[in-house]
Amino acid sequence: MTDPAMPSVPPAAVPVPPAAVPSEEQKQRAKWDLLLADLEYRQEQLRLARQELGYKPWQVGFSAMTAGAAVFAAGAAFVKLFG
Fold first, then answer.
1. Sequential DSSP letters for the chain
2. What range does the domain containing 38 cover?
3. Is position 64 within any domain?
4. Which residue has the higher pLDDT, 1 or 51?
5. Contact 80, 72 (CB under 8 A)
6. What is the pLDDT of residues 61-76, one digit of tens each?
């Protein structure tokens, strides 16, 4: 299905102007832009997940203190029994 008005030219035969080829600095800047956009997207997803869970900082701290107390009690019982 080729158009007779359009000649078929292989892509390698079409010359690329020097301005169309990105420099290393432009490639690096584009890479950093993509990484920054991905980071912003992930931060937003994390914020939404935290908002959906509804955890407050004091709840996390209380859970950590409770777990620490349980480990301490288990250690004390171990020392009392076998120490």
1. ---TTSPP--GGGSPPPGGGSPPHHHHHHHHHHHHHHHHHHHHHHHHHHHHHHT--HHHHHHHHHHHHHHHHHHHHHHHHHH-
2. 23-82
3. yes
4. 51
5. no
6. 999 999 999 999 999 9
